[in-house]
């Protein structure tokens, strides 16, 4: 039962959690017979999102075959874990290819201190005495903690990053190293667990030898990170399909600067980075440009955001609940569309803004018919803003009126339910598939599919309704003109 | 006896309510030179064609009215404009979200925040703890607030709310904002159609010209700049729907007057009710209609139709009006209504009944008996009336303002407001208009109106006398307040519509009459004179002598008047053209009636050409006004330069910042102009807003702005203000900023708190902010908040609005800190520093309950330290 292997193609399907219990039974017995020969962990902290690349060389020194290996996370890490991807290397040297492996969480009641385990299913079970290399990438959000928590406008933003000098693992690790990469060489302090070395923007912990399972030695790195900590607290994407040829997207953002809070005085003369002013000169009666010399700001505030939209985008709008926001630029080429937006005001730590981006897309780029006659939408999950964390993402796929049996195929676990949306002159309403996911990072920008049945006759329902109502109006008017509704008997009068 | 015959016809029409085609019939039939034998068969076809054409033209006029108002959406964006519309928008949002019942009971605590200091009430330490807490809840944080349901004219909100509701029930997901933005253009189209109906009604006596005049007037109204200025897309204000209601009420009144139908009388009362719901200008209706009734009675035009037109309106209308909470018993109590309900109702309403009674008695008694009865009734009537009048006068005289509110007093005496009420005077739309503003707002109509008046006198009917009365009163009112130009516009359009249509009729008729002569030798006079409908020959015969004399009598003064006007406004070609046309037209009058004397062919052709040029000029002006002058939403400013359009979106930047980055319960103080916008866009409580009913409160804010930092901080702190918002245009040259409004703050503040004196802020009577400014000016809060760190932008501190370098460049703020400034520095937001950092001699301050009463202690304790 537990000895299932999955092809790479099958990986795209949401893993079956049913089997995890059986997996566990097996692992508890098999942990003793696996060890990690060498492990390397590279932590990239150059952006507000922490990305960790983990390379494990695993050996099976026991007798039974091992179909899966486990990766452990501390409770805080698993809380902030946005995505975990694993792959294995195939082929030699030049012909090296990465084959993705399926990953599923495992309930681990016996793991110490609430460590959370994830199992990586290997392509083929690891035979006794064999070794394999597994590479894992995982992304942690909200793991950089600003300290000091409040800074003034011209101060740099310093953050803490907490982790362990040794890699948390349910297996014995023979040799391991951890590298932490910071955006610059400005590191205030870091914990030393010998051997520790620092060169430039990289801090190295290790190599350490023969650490026992679940060994943990906390370290803290305090460094400067002036990246804008753009966090979308809530993003609601509405994708509306019209079989008349248009795909309408509406993204409602609630954006926050999650870095160190801004404190004290705000000043344009400090805040402005290369600002210039268009001055409406009442005397000259035309605007003229006024440039000022401004001090370079160190602060982590941000003015602009970049959204990557699909190619052939049209009728783009950018507004909030009090009207159009006039500061945006759209660049379109055949590969992609870039929308550069500025919130109404530069965002300093702790400041928030809401806005909506909407656009239309040609339907034929995204809607296809599958071999069994069903239609499916193929669209990118995730947030179009680059380098942005989304705390709470809701994707609403509004199918045309009259469509039935929607099913979604998403490459990672999401909550989904159905609801009804009523739009232009709907009678029965449009079936809407709602997908919800927490903690979304750019790595989630991965296509997903929504399959549904649709009869094209429904396209004519609304035009026919309009035509018939106009017709009825005229019929009623003709009837009204020709029917005498007065109470009196019609009299023949000679006027 | 042309009158009864005529009316009989109208009466019949009214009952049958014929489709538009019937009404169009004569105008298309009459000029036709068709064979009498063919006329019948072809006539019905032409009739149908004319009806369809008329409806089509009306539709086009509606489209024109709607689309000419969309410049603001196309050039800017679909957004609510100005100040008051933001309040209406917010109320509509509440209505659509919470429903009608909550709307009536809505107590809006986002405005007029008022902090009654507790220490005055809690000095007595024996006070029960519970009582103290109660006081804390009741008195300490007591928002003055505003009962929206009871203080707002709900017509506009309910209209937009029901449109939204209807659309939403049809599953058309338009946002409330979109509906609000487009309400005004939609109602402008309605108003144009109502104008068509109204103009058609009084010009019935011209038989054929009704439809033509109606269509012309509707087209003129669809694009009259005065109305456009209040009804562009986004200008979501009461006037947008009220002008439609006004015209429609007048139409129904005249319709009732013409038909004597109770059905229309009831509709009229309902329409009046809608007007009362919509706008305070309903008093204009309820003053104008009694005046007209009185005029009719005095000129001996009393009829049962007049009774039916007036009595139900007064009774039903007043009952309905008092249902509107904001009007309530005002409908009968205030002097603004005295004209109608008490003075005129006692006079007009009772007089009307007396007259009706007299007519009735006259009908049943013999002439002798009637004389006796007459004397008896008159004596008793006079006695009763004078008694009632005496009581009334005593009542009115006993009230302090003599029963007149400030705004209506300034109606009677235009200088009243600027003399006594600075808060009314400070609003530009309450100023008397200048001559150019007439030309700007009604353009060529101003010259066509006299011609229209003349046309209405030929002959004078009940309906046309009403229109004359309407134009006369509205001209007077528009002379008092710029804002009331709006009431003048429909009247001017109606008059000009009649004038233009009359003129065209005269010219085309003479051309038509002469064209066959050119080709054929034999004139077909007989066919021409007989081409009218059945009624016409009799009517023409009867009218001709009187009309002619009337016309010749009228001609002279009107021409003299025109000469005078010419001299006064020697502006060039257009005016001369107009003068000529009018003169032509007037001299044409009798010709029309007689249909024998015609103008020379060439003259009429030239005149038509000139009229078309005049019309084209009007259209060009209106489109320009709609596109350039009246479409700016005022919250977004744009300017063009050689490399494109630049947008100044600072107001919304500031409001969005306030909304997202301050606490929900924080109070924001600013000058009252920005109150509605702050509550609507930033959703924060404001101290004063555009509803200027509380002068003292506005004066308090004005005083704070005119005081030095410390006293200002005290005032704001006592009001529990967290943020202070000022508008500053010095960096980009935006001239309607707070520094330019500052003298009004000083004046209004000084009106209540005498220690603020205007001369302290002026150097030799001049308002200046440069190095020569007075120390009081340079130290007041407004100056400091506006120019704080301004010198850092260019090193000199050059103010682009005032065109000078500022007087005091480097200074610190002790009690306020800058928390936000927009991109172009147009809005600056400051936060009050918390008191801990400030108090040094703490015990000393504590003993003096300084912040106790913000108003009273200000008067006594606070002294201006700069003198």
Description:
- The complex is a heterodimer of chains A (about 500) and B (about 850).
- Chain A is mainly β and about 500 residues long.
- Chain A folds into three domains: about 30-225, Immunoglobulin-like (Sandwich); about 230-260 and about 300-460, Sandwich (Immunoglobulin-like), CATH 2.60.40.1730; about 265-295, no CATH class.
- In chain A, about 10% of the residues lie in helices and about 50% in strands.
- Chain A has four helices and 33 strands.
- Chain A has helices spanning about 20-30, 75-80, 270, 460-480; strands at about 35-45, 50-60, 65-75, 80-90, 95-105, 115-125, 130-140, 145, 150, 160-165, 170-180, 185-190, 195-200, 200-210, 220-225, 230-240, 245-255, 260, 275-280, 285-290, 305-310, 315-320, 325, 330, 335-340, 350-360, 365-370, 375-380, 390-400, 405-410, 415-420, 430-440, 445-455.
- Chain B is mainly alpha-helical.
- The termini of chain B are far apart.
- In chain B, α5 packs across α8 (about 155-170), α14 (about 280-300) crosses α24 and α15 packs antiparallel against α17 (about 335-365).
- In chain B, the strands form five sheets. Chain B has a five-stranded mixed β-sheet, sandwiched between helices. A two-stranded antiparallel sheet of chain B has the order 1-2. A two-stranded antiparallel ribbon of chain B has the order 3-4.
- At the A-B interface, β19, β20, β23 and β26 of A face β3, β4, α30, α37 and β12 of B.
Features:
heterodimer, A: 495 residues, mainly beta, Immunoglobulin-like, 3 domains, ten-stranded mixed β-sheet, eight-stranded mixed β-sheet, 4 helices, 48% strand, disordered N terminus, B: 867 residues, mainly alpha, Rossmann fold, five-stranded mixed β-sheet, two-stranded antiparallel ribbon, 39 helices, globular
């Amino acid at each position: 039962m537990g000895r299932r292997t999955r092809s790479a193609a099958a990986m795209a399907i949401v893993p079956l959690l049913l089997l995890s219990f059986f997996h566990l039974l097996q692992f508890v017995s098999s942990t003793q017979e696996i060890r990690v020969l060498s492990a390397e962990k590279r932590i990239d902290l150059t952006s507000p999102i922490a990305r960790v690349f983990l390379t494990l060389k695993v050996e099976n020194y026991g007798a039974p075959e091992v179909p899966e290996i486990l990766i452990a996370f501390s409770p805080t890490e698993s809380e902030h874990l946005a995505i975990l991807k694993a792959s294995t290397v195939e082929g030699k040297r030049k012909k090296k290819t990465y084959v993705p492996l399926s990953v599923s969480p495992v309930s681990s009641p016996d793991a110490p201190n609430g460590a959370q385990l994830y199992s990586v299913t290997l392509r083929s079970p690891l035979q006794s005495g064999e070794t394999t290399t597994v590479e894992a990438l995982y992304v942690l959000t909200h793991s950089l903690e600003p300290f000091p928590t409040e800074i003034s406008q011209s101060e740099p933003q310093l953050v803490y990053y907490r982790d362990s000098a040794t890699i948390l693992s349910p297996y014995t690790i023979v040799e391991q190293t951890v590298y932490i990469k910071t955006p610059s060489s400005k590191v205030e302090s870091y914990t030393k667990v010998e051997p520790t070395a620092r060169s430039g923007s990289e801090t190295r912990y290790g190599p350490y030898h023969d650490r026992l399972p679940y060994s943990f030695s906390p370290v803290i790195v305090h460094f400067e990170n002036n990246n804008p900590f753009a966090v979308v607290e809530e993003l609601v994407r509405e994708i509306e399909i019209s079989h008349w040829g248009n795909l309408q997207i509406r993204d409602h953002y609630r954006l926050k600067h999650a870095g160190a809070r801004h404190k004290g005085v705000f000043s344009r003369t400090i805040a402005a980075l290369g600002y210039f002013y268009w001055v409406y000169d009442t005397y000259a009666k035309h605007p003229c440009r006024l440039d000022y010399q401004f001090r370079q700001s160190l602060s982590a505030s941000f003015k602009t955001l970049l959204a990557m939209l699909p190619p052939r985008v049209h009728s783009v709008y950018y507004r909030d609940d009090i009207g159009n926001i006039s500061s945006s630029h759209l660049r379109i080429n055949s590969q992609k569309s870039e929308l550069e937006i500025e919130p109404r005001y530069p965002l300093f730590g702790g400041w928030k803004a809401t806005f909506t981006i909407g656009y239309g897309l040609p339907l034929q780029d995204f809607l296809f018919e599958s071999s069994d006659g069903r239609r499916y939408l193929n669209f990118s999950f995730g947030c179009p803003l680059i380098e942005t964390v989304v705390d709470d993402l809701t994707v609403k796929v509004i199918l045309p009126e009259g469509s039935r049996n929607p099913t979604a195929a998403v490459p990672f676990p999401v909550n989904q339910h159905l609801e009804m949306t009523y739009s232009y002159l709907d009678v029965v309403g449009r079936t809407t598939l709602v997908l919800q996911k927490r903690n979304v990072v750019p790595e989630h920008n991965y296509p997903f599919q929504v399959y549904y049945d649709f009869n094209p006759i429904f396209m004519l329902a609304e035009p026919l309704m309009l035509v018939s109502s106009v017709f009825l109006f005229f019929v009623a008017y003709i009837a009204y003109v020709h029917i005498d509704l007065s109470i009196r008997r019609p009299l023949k009068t000679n006027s | 006896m042309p009158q009864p015959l005529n009316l009989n016809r109208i009466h019949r029409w009214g009952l049958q309510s014929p489709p538009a085609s019937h009404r169009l019939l004569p105008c298309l039939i009459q000029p036709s030179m068709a064979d009498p034998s063919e006329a019948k068969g072809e006539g019905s076809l032409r009739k149908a064609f004319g009806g369809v054409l008329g409806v089509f033209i009306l539709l086009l006029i509606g489209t024109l009215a709607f689309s000419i108002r969309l410049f603001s959406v196309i050039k800017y964006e679909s957004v609510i404009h100005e100040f008051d519309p933001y309040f209406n928008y917010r109320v509509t949002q509440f209505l659509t979200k919470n429903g009608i019942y909550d709307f009536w009971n809505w107590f809006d605590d986002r405005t007029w925040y008022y902090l009654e200091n507790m220490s005055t009430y809690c000095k007595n330490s024996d006070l029960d703890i519970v009582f103290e807490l109660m006081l804390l809840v009741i008195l300490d944080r007591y928002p003055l607030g505003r009962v929206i349901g009871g203080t707002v004219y709900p017509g506009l909100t309910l209209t937009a709310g029901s449109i939204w509701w209807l659309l939403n029930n049809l599953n058309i997901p338009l946002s409330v904002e979109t509906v609000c933005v487009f309400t005004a253009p939609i109602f402008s189209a309605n108003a144009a159609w109502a104008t068509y109906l109204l103009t058609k009604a009084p010009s019935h006596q011209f038989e054929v010209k009704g439809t033509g005049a109606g269509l012309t007037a509707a087209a003129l109204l669809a694009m009259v700049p005065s109305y456009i200025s209040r009804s562009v897309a986004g200008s979501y204000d009461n006037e947008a729907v009220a002008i439609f209601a006004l015209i429609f009420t007048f139409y129904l009144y005249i319709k009732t007057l013409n038909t004597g139908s109770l059905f229309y009388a009831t509709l009229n009362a309902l329409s009046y009710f809608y007007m009362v719901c919509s706008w305070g200008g309903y008093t204009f209706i309820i003053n104008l209609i009694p005046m007209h009734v009185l005029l009719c009675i005095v000129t001996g035009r009393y009829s049962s139709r007049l009774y039916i037109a007036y009595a139900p309106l007064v009774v039903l209308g007043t009952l309905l009006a008092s249902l509107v909470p904001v009007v309530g018993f005002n409908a009968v109590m205030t002097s603004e209504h005295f004209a109608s309900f008490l003075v005129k109702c006692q006079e007009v309403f009772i007089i009307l009944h007396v007259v009706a009674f007299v007519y009735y008695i006259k009908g049943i008694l013999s002439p002798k008996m009637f004389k006796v009865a007459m004397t008896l009734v008159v004596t008793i009537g006079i006695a009763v009336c004078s008694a009632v009048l005496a009581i009334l006068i005593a009542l009115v005289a006993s009230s302090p303002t003599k029963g007149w509110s400030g705004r209506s007093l300034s109606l009677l005496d235009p200088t009243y407001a600027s003399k006594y009420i600075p808060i009314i005077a400070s609003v530009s739309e309450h100023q008397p208009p200048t001559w150019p503003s007439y030309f700007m707002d009604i353009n060529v109509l101003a010259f066509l109106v006299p011609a229209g008046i003349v046309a209405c006198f030929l002959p004078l009917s009940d309906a046309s006398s009403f229109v004359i009365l309407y134009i006369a009163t509205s001209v007077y009112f528009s002379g008092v307040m710029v804002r009331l130009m709006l009431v003048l516009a429909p009247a001017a359009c109606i008059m000009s519509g009649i004038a233009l249509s009359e003129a065209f009729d005269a010219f085309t008729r003479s051309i038509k009459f002469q064209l066959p002569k050119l080709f054929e030798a034999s004139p077909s006079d007989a066919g021409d004179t007989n081409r009218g409908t059945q009624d016409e020959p009799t009517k023409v015969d009867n009218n001709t002598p009187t009309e002619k004399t009337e016309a010749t009598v009228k001609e002279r003064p009107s021409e003299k008047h025109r000469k005078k006007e010419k001299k006064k406004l020697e502006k060039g070609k257009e005016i001369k053209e107009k003068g000529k046309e009018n003169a032509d037209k007037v001299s044409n009058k009798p010709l029309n009636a007689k249909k024998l004397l015609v103008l020379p062919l060439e003259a009429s052709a030239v005149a038509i050409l000139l009229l078309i040029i005049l019309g084209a000029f009007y259209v060009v002006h209106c489109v320009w006004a709609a596109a350039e002058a009246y479409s700016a939403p005022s919250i977004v400013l744009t300017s063009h330069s050689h490399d494109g359009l630049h947008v100044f979106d600072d107001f919304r930047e500031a409001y969005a910042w306030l909304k997202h980055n301050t606490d929900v319960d924080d109070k924001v103080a600013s000058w009252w102009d920005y109150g509605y916008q702050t509550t609507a866009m930033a959703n924060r409580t404001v101290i004063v807003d555009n509803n200027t009913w509380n002068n003292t409160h506005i004066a308090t804010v004005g005083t704070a702005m005119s005081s030095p930092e410390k006293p200002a901080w005290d005032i704001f702190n006592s009001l529990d203000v967290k943020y202070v918002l000022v508008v500053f245009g010095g960096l980009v040259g935006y001239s309607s900023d707070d520094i330019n409004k500052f003298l009004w703050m000083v004046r209004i503040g000084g009106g209540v708190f005498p220690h603020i004196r205007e001369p302290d802020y002026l150097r030799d009577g001049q308002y200046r902010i440069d190095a020569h400014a007075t120390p009081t000016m340079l130290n007041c809060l407004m100056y400091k908040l506006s120019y704080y760190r301004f010198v850092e932008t260019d090193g000199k501190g050059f103010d682009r609005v005032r065109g000078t370098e500022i007087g005091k460049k480097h200074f610190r703020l002790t009690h306020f800190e800058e928390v936000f400034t927009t991109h172009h520095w147009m809005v600056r937001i400051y936060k009050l520093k918390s008191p801990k950092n400030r108090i040094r001699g703490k015990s000393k301050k504590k003993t003096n309950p300084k912040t106790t009463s913000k108003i009273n202690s200000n008067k006594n304790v606070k002294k201006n330290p700069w003198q």
